[in-house]
Amino acid sequence: MTSPSRRTLDSRESILHAFDTFRAELDDYNDRRERLIKSSRDITNLSKKLIFLLHRTVTEDATETDDRVLGLRAAARAKGKLSEIQSLFAAMREELVGDRFWHHQRNISPGLQEYIEALSFAHYLEHRTLISYAQVQATLSDSDGNPFFTLPVEDYLLGLADLTGELMRFAIAAIPRRGGRQKASDICSFVRACKADFEGLTPYFRELRKKQSVTAQSLEKIEDATYAVVVRTSEYDLPPELLDDLVAQTISRAADHSSFGEEPRRKRPRDPEYDMDDD
User: Fold this and answer.
1) Distance of CA 121 to CAs 26, 68, 181, 216, 245, Å?
2) 121-160 as b/e, with b when 16 or more CB fall inside 10 Å?
3) How far is it, in rounded angstroms, from Cα 156 to Cα 151?
4) pTM of structure
5) What count of other Cβ atoms lies within 10 Å of the Cβ of residue 63?
6) Angle at the Cα of 155 (from 152 to 159), degrees rounded to 5?
7) What is the pLDDT along the chain (279 residues), one digit of tens a residue?
8) I want to staple 114 with a disulfide (CB 3.0 to 4.6 A). Which of 44, 73, 104, 220 is the partner?
9) What CA–CA distance (Å, rounded) separates 84 from 90?
10) Rg of the chain, C-alpha, whole Å
C-alpha cells in the first residue's frame, strides 16, 4: 500500500511536470509571436518601399506619354521586390500550420494588408483593374499552388481600401502631365466604384467601415482636383494637347510661387545665433 507521503510526492511531481509543459508551450507561443511580428514589420517596410518605387517609376519620365509603357515599366521593376516579400511569407509557412494561423492572424495582418496595397497598386498600373482575391491568394502560394496560409477576406478588403489613397496621389501627380486630365478622371471613376462596392460590405467588417471614411476623403480630393481643372480649361477653346501644356504650366507656377509675382516663403533654419541677431 502506498504511503500518504509517497502519494503527496507523486502528486507534487506531476503538478510540476504539468507546469513545465505549460511554460514550454507559452515560451514557444511567445517566441513564435515575436518572430511573426518581426517578419510582418519587414514586409510592411518592403511594401512601403515598393509603393514609393511604383510612384517614382510612373512619374520620373516626363517625356513618356504612353500610360501602358509606364505601367509595364513599373510592374517590371516591382517584380523583384514582390518576390522578396513573397519569400518572407513563404518562411512563415511552418509557423502558421493548422490553427496557428488564426492564433497569430492579428500579428501578421498589418504586413499582409500593406503587401496587398502594394501588390494591387502594381496590378492596377499594369492592367488598370482591381486585383481579385484569387490572384492575391495565388501570390501567397508555392509553385504547386499550395497556399502558405488562407488569405482572410477582411485583410484582402482592407488592403484594397488602402489602395485608394495611393490612387489619389497617383491621380493628382498625373494631372500636370500630358493626358493627365483624362487619367485623373478615369482614376476618379475607378475609386468611386470601389467605394460603392465596399459600402455593401461594411456591415460585415468593422475595420472596413473606418477605412471607408479615408476612401471618401481620397475621392473628394481627386474630385476637387479634376473639377478645378475641368472648369478652368473650359474657359479656353484649345486643342487637348495645348490644354495639357497650359495645365502643366499653371500647376508649375503655383508650385513655384505662393501668389502672383511673389516668391514662396521658405522656412528659415533654426539657428540660435541668427535668431539673437534678429532680436
Assistant:
1) 39, 14, 20, 18, 27
2) bbbbbbeeeebeeeebbebbbeeeeeebbebbebbbbbbb
3) 7
4) 0.79
5) 5
6) 145
7) 556 666 665 677 777 777 778 788 887 888 888 999 999 999 999 999 999 999 999 888 767 767 788 888 998 999 999 999 999 999 999 888 888 888 888 999 999 999 999 999 999 999 999 999 999 999 999 999 999 999 999 999 999 999 999 999 999 888 877 777 788 889 999 999 999 999 999 999 989 999 999 999 999 999 988 887 777 666 666 566 666 665 555 555 544 543 433 444 444 444 444 344 444
8) 44
9) 10
10) 27
CB 44 within 8 A of CB 113: no
Q: Which helix (H) or strand (E) holds 156?
A: helix 153-174
Grid cell locating 22: 505549460
Contacts 24+ apart (CB under 8 A), 18-23: none
Residue type, 42: D
User: What are the backbone dihedrals phi and psi of residue 90, each rounded to the nearest 5 degrees, phi first?
Assistant: -65, -35
- Residue 272 grid cell: 540660435
> What is each CA distance from 86 to 42, 139, 143, 157, 205, in whole angstroms?
11, 7, 12, 19, 26
- Residue with the three cell numbers 470601389: 194
Contact predicate 219/195, CB 8 Å: yes
Collect all residues with Cβ–Cβ distance below 8 Å to 225 and sequence separation of at least 6: 171, 172, 175, 184
